[in-house]
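User: Before I run my own analysis I want an independent prediction to cross-check against. Here's the chain; please return only the structure tokens and, at the end, one sentence I can use as a sanity check.
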Amino acid sequence: MQLTPGKVKGLQAVSNDRGVIAAAAMDQRGSLKKALAAAGERDVNASEMEEFKTAVTEVLTKHASAILLDPEYGLPASRQRAPGAGLLLAYEESGYDNTQPGRLPDLLPHESVQRLVEQGADAVKVLIYYTPFEDSAINDIKHAFVERIGSECQANDVPFFLEFVGYDPEGGDEKGAQYARRKPDIVTQSMAEFSKEKYGVDVLKVEIPVNMKFVEGAECFAGTAAYNKDQALQYFRQAADAAAKPFIYLSAGVSNPEYTESLRMAAESGVRWAGVLAGRATWKDGIPVYAKQGVEAFHQWLETQGVQNINAINECLKAASPWYSFYNADSPDALLGQAVGV
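Assistant: Structure tokens:
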């Protein structure tokens, strides 16, 4: 595997001085608007979405290597990030409300990779819903979709982060025990699939391969076991072994204690992982503060509880490895030299 100069520089821009991706995520749109509306018992407008995202960006990027934002509401926030913090921009339509059969993805109609780069993106992120157990004709559409984006990122020489979130194609409860038992295979097979060179993915943004609420012996164990701790550790290893690209863990909306426990388990398993893109595990509990008390109270919450949340994640990142180690390099400069033929 070889990276081009633009991709190396983009990955440097979104990682910390250790080469670990310690990024915050604030690209939620539909789900965020619904949560704010529910908490405040009123409709939420675009300026409030921008204000919320700006507050998160101003505070949390002081403690993050980068932030993931969306071009719909996040561009004003992108200009308020801390010096040295990189920028990832989302390219897909808001996806967490996607319930159509097959959960087919779509891109923002007024954006392109070129436009995202022109708006300051150091890297481009795309989310798809994916399971290897979906109908092959549906997955073929998704494979072609990712291939097109990979080619577009290659043409613009910018890193491509692919986030894939599993689901039950039969409509089962994805938070239940039955799905929890299938989750390790879904995550593992998805990581293997999108590690293939034809997709042009540079970083895999992956789910924790187990549902921590079903790990017997875990602090957040909810009472029904899908696996014991030794099995869970092995599922971390199994998924990591399937990856041929750097991968980072997403937080998937779980609480900060559950997310940090899962990262500690990743460390205990001994796998090599390149960092995080953590969103709701840092700022989700501040939604009612903003909705009911306003932006100043939310700022205060972020400066206290929000910073505590992201620092708890950063503590876990001491066990993460540099993204460039996945390319058998000991520094970004070594990769840059290879890319330009030095």
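Sanity check: The chain has a mean pLDDT of 95.
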